[in-house]
Amino acid sequence: MRIGITCYPVAGGSGVVATELGQKLAVRGHQIHFISYALPFRLDTYQPNLFFHGVETTAYPLFKHPPYTLALATKMAEVACENELQILHVHYAVPHATCAFLAKQLITCTLPKIITTLHGTDITLVGSDPSYYDITRFSINASDGVTAVSKYLADETRQTFKIEREIQVVHNFFDQERFSPRMDPCCQRNAFARPDEFVLSHISNFRPVKRLLDVIDIFDRIQQKLPARLLLIGEGPDAVLARRQVNKRNLADRVTFLGNQNRIEAVLPVSDLFLLPSEEESFGLAALEALACGVPVIGTVETGLVEVIEHNVNGFLLPVGETAAMADAAVALLSNKDKLARFKTDAYRLALERFNSEKIVAEYENYYEKILNT
Ligand code: GMT
Q1: Does 172 contact ligand 1 (Cβ within 6 A)?
Q2: Residue 226: its pLDDT value, please?
Q3: pLDDT tens, 212-222?
Q4: Who contacts 326 (Cβ-Cβ below 8 Å, separation ≥6)?
Q5: Closest residue to atom 12 of ligand 1, CA basis
Q6: Rg (alpha carbons) of the chain, rounded to whole number
Q7: What is the dihedral of CA 7, 320, 161, 172, to 10 degrees?
Q8: How many CB atoms lie within 10 A of CB 190?
Q9: Same CATH fold, 189-355 and 2-173+356-372?
Q10: 282 C-alpha vs ligand 1 centroid, how far in Å?
Q11: How far is the CA of 274 from the centre of ligand 1 (A)?
């Protein structure tokens, strides 16, 4: 198949899923054309069947912000005709689904089918904002196919946007060649902790929805009972707040801020437990990548994490904000060597069984076939 993919190129779950999907599809013989304003951040090496088309915007004194949406729609139409695209698969509805709709009005060659993948905040935070609500709803309905990364998100979308159309659930996946419990020689556990200390970790874009202060509170409670270290990976608006909190609680010598990391698969296996106490999480790719490295996860109920974590098997699911209960669960697990070993084994086993890339990429391929035949 000849497929165009549009995504945000910066660090973030939707960009990661789109990029890795494109790479895997290219390996399976499809011709993949990425269309975005920069090279997606995990697309850093040459690969046959993979092409990148950059979108240029022109500044003009009248514009407060150059109209990227228009430039993207124009580029989508151009790439679609030049490469006879059969499918234009856009990740993150805002504004990509709208750009795809616009592109379709411009295209004078055979029209590609538009598939929109909903990732989470495009529905729960951004798309539902009154400024974007109507156009997001319109663009989702105008797509030829729509997928969501969890049943939780598909239900939220139907409810928030009063949409009745079919939304296919295709979960996030991980690359089993990259993510596994084996330690990377470049990243040894003793670089972060003494042998008697537990290592906890958290990865996110440090936005309020991730509740970084809860992560620090949970860790603080744990380290009062057990020797432990916390690795914080990522960057974002709450980084300053987090550093302030760490200093205020005198935890600076126990918490390491690692910033954004390209190879999180090297860092994750040193962890004993991953903390993701998010307010909203449509799926929780970071949680899946931790599980894939054999790291159990503490997450929140009433989010898409319930489709990723099995309570009391490979982690714990607790209500948002219940940091004391989360810390108690963590301490009980870390203090029981056999149970911890079992959780770690099950974390990897279940991740591999349910979310390996072969399985999920095939689900996308089947969905493409289905939409092409409608
Ligand atoms: O977590 C974020 O805010 C980033 C966001 C994105 O689109 O880049 O992540 C969302 O998409 C991921 C990939 O599908 C999901 O695994 C995350 O759960 C989702 N984030 C939220 O729903 C908050």
Answers
A1: yes
A2: 98
A3: 999 999 999 99
A4: 214, 218, 275, 277, 298, 316, 318
A5: 13
A6: 21
A7: 40
A8: 8
A9: yes
A10: 6
A11: 17
Reading the block at residue 26, the tokens are: 């290219």
> What pLDDT does residue 98 have?
98
Burial 39-75 (b: 16+ CB within 10 A, else e): ebbbbeeeeebbebbebeeeeeeeeeeeeebebbbbb
**Domain chopping of the chain, boundaries:** 2-173+356-372, 189-355
Give yes or no for residue 281 CB within 6 A of ligand 1.
yes
- Classified as helix, coil or strand, 320 is coil
- What is the torsional sign of CA 281, 285, 288, 293? negative
Are residues 220 and 255 in contact, defined by beta-carbon separation less than 8 angstroms?
Answer: no
How far is it, in rounded angstroms, from Cα 255 to Cα 275?
14
Reading the block at residue 287, the tokens are 């949680």
Phi-psi region of 235 (alpha: psi -120 to 50; beta: other; left: phi over 0): beta
Please report the pLDDT score of residue 12 as a whole number: 86
Does the domain at 189-355 match CATH 2.40.50.140? Answer given as no
User: What are the two backbone dihedrals, phi and then psi, of residue 31, each rounded to the nearest 5 degrees?
Assistant: -95, 120
Sheet containing strand 2-6, strands side by side: 50-54, 31-36, 2-6, 87-91, 113-118, 145-148, 168-169
216 dihedral zone (left: phi>0; alpha: psi -120 to 50; beta): alpha
The residues with which 118 forms a beta bridge, in sequence order, are: 148
Ligand 1 lined by 206 (C-beta under 6 Å): no
Give yes or no for a contact between 309 and 315, defined as CB atoms under 8 angstroms apart: yes
Between CA 43 and CA 41 the distance in angstroms is: 6
* pLDDT the model gives residue 326: 98
Nearest ligand 1 atom to alpha carbon 204: 1
Which residues of the chain fall below pLDDT 70?
Answer: none
Structure tokens at 373: 């035949």
Q: Is the CB of 316 under 6 A from ligand 1?
A: no
Architecture field, domain 2-173+356-372 = 3-Layer(aba) Sandwich (3.40)
* pLDDT for the residue numbered 212: 98
